[in-house]
Design a protein that fits this description.
A hairpin with a 3-residue loop joins β10 and β11. This protein has a single domain, classed as Protocatechuate 3,4-Dioxygenase, subunit A (Sandwich). The strands form three sheets. Strands 3, 4, 7, 10 and 11 form a five-stranded mixed beta sheet that branches. The protein is α+β, with helices and mostly antiparallel strands. It is built from four helices and eleven strands.
Length: 272
């Protein structure tokens, strides 16, 4: 099952032809919402300054939209494309920098990144946290490789983990800043489940989406050692040309604070 993410056939996760139906559905939803005069302004974040960005929140229930559905890509590790890390003992964890269980035991190097997702009920206008839900989160390493799939790291399962949301609807993963690989804006994948039991059984996914990282923060991180290839890749992309985020990224652009020297914290509200 070893695959390289930068193979031309998988340059955009599963490819533009796979993602177009998802994008078309999202555009149709927005058009229908506009015709009904119902604004689709989510509980989102905007990139406003170097090294940090400030979130904007919905002001009423009619302004809260469910997080956009996105492809999980070819490297989910949830059993839908070969390997299934969700059923492995130890997958429920907050620090996802190292591999666990029967893996090779490696640790992903890179600029530290804490990722906090707040899962809320969209039907309540984003005011009610979803306590007891679960989030499975994964992303590529500093070299742009995905554990379990990419050549050289098929025996690793780092940068993957599951957590149950607390009474605030929150989960926080300690990780590293992902690379920018050819053809995709820097991003983090996640799936939301109704419960921890559902997540560890790899069943009943309620939402699949992706988090985007702000350009100013990416520029700062990619200027550090180990990320040199990401500089060139990022220079060929923008959020407006990325095949996932080009139709709108307001709900998926994380608010990020911190520094390349001390590490960053990314936060995103996830209405489901």
């Amino acid at each position: 099952m070893s695959r390289r993410h930068h193979d031309e056939t998988h340059e955009h996760d599963r490819g533009l032809s796979y993602d177009l139906p998802v994008l078309a559905r999202r555009r149709m939803i927005r058009l229908m919402a506009g015709a009904s005069l119902i604004p689709l302004v989510g509980c989102s974040t905007d990139d406003t300054s170097a090294g940090s960005s400030s979130p904007s929140s919905a002001s009423s229930p009619t302004e809260c939209a469910t997080i956009p559905d996105e492809t999980a890509g070819p490297y989910p590790g949830d059993g839908s494309n070969g390997v299934n890390v969700l059923k492995e003992s130890g997958v429920v964890r907050s620090d996802i920098t190292s591999s666990f269980g029967d893996s090779a035991g490696g640790t992903a190097e890179g600029v530290p990144l804490a990722i906090t997702l707040t899962v809320v009920d969209a039907a309540s206008g984003c005011d009610t946290p979803k306590q007891g839900a679960a989030v499975y989160l994964w992303h590529c390493d500093r070299d742009g490789n995905y554990s379990l799939y990419s050549e050289g790291v098929t025996d690793e399962n780092y940068l993957r983990g599951v957590q149950e949301t607390d009474d605030k609807g929150q989960v926080t993963f300690r990780s590293i800043f992902p690379a920018c690989y050819a053809g995709r804006w820097p991003h983090i994948h996640f799936e939301v489940y109704g419960s921890l039991d559902d997540a560890t059984a790899a069943t009943s996914i309620t939402n699949t989406s992706q988090l985007a990282l702000p350009k100013d923060v990416c520029d700062a991180v990619y200027a550090t050692d180990g990320y040199s290839q990401s500089v060139q890749n990022l220079g060929r992309l923008s959020l407006e040309t990325d095949n996932i985020f080009s139709d709108g990224h307001d709900q998926q652009l994380a608010a990020v604070t911190g520094s390349a020297e001390k590490g960053y914290t990314a936060t995103l509200t996830v209405p489901v």
